[in-house]
Amino acid sequence: MDPAEKKARDLLKDLYDRTPCMPIMVRLAWHDSGSYSAKDNTGGANATIRYSPESDIDANKGLDIARNLLEPIKEQVASMSYADLYQLSSVAAIEYAGGPKIPFRLGRKDKPKEDCSPDGRLPDATKRMPHLRDIFYRMGFNDKEIVLLSGAHCLGKAHPERSGFEGPWTTEPLKFDNTYFKEILKPDADPNLLRLASDMALLDEEETKKLVEAYAADQDLFFKEYAVAHQKLSELGCQF
Ligand code: HEM
């Protein structure tokens, strides 16, 4: 392993031991790379999320917290790009939370402020499958990958001051597992848990519902397929 990667992984582990910020790191990395458009090869895992105007869009509210937590680590691994560090922090967070080992390689390039992605590239939580397809197909994903990646909502919670929503999706939001799928399948929602319209959308059609059921029934299958989809997400718009 590259010495900078090893050092960053050690520092991230120290950070997660001290501060349970794994979920927001996963959200930071996803909001950086999820700006990708395969139509014109713009956006992607390029760290433009740290510049205004991209940092200021509503969808990215609160992510300065994650970037600030990573800044002292960046200083100690100066040779690593921000884009690599953001994605590594997410992969390491998922592993730390008990999730699958996600293949990772260094080599993402930081792009300048001028390459900030426009607003509107990330999904709207109040919308259902047609919208999710518009957004995720633009990144180059398919329906199965929409279901898999939504499973990352096993981690973390919504914050009223960031998104207007509130609460976690599962009873153990610092654990990466398949309970997100189990929860959304329950006919009676737990009043303490969150279900976004975009989460319930996965049950709207037979094909995606079957995938939710398969991942709820088989965590190993979820982990194996999630790791592949997440690696793809972490490399959108990048050449190695
Ligand atoms: C399918 C479309 C998606 C929608 C509409 C959506 C929407 C949201 C919203 C509204 C929040 C709450 C933010 C806050 O208030 O702090 C959130 C949090 C989160 N999202 Fe998503 N998301 C989607 C997909 C994803 C994907 C693909 C990933 C990662 C692979 C992801 C990872 C997370 C994580 C880990 C959190 C928790 C953050 C925290 O605890 O601070 N989401 N998402």
Comma- or semicolon-separated keywords:
Peroxidase, domain 1, two-stranded antiparallel sheet, binds protoporphyrin IX containing FE, Peroxidase, domain 2, 10 helices, 240 residues, 2 domains, 2% strand, 2 strands, mainly alpha
Give a brief rundown of this model:
The protein has 240 residues and is an all-alpha fold. It is 48% helix and 2% strand.
Quaternary assembly? single chain
Could you report the average pLDDT, rounded to the nearest whole number? Answer: 98
Ligands in the structure? Answer: protoporphyrin IX containing FE
Structural class: mainly alpha
Task: Using the CA coordinates, give the radius of gyration.
Answer: 17 Å
Strand order of the largest sheet: 1-2
Quickly give the CATH architecture of the largest domain: Orthogonal Bundle
Shape: globular
Identify low-pLDDT runs: none
The level of helicity is 40-55%
User: Given this structure, which CATH class of the largest domain is correct?
Assistant: Mainly Alpha
Strand content of the residues, in percent?
under 5%
CATH fold-level topology of the largest domain: Peroxidase, domain 1
Run of helices and strands:
HHHHHHEEHHHH
The DSSP helix count reads: 10
GO molecular function, one term: heme binding
Protein name: Putative L-ascorbate peroxidase 4
Keywords: Oxidoreductase, Peroxidase
InterPro entries: Ccp1-like (IPR044831), Haem_peroxidase (IPR002016), Haem_peroxidase_sf (IPR010255), Peroxidase_I (IPR002207)
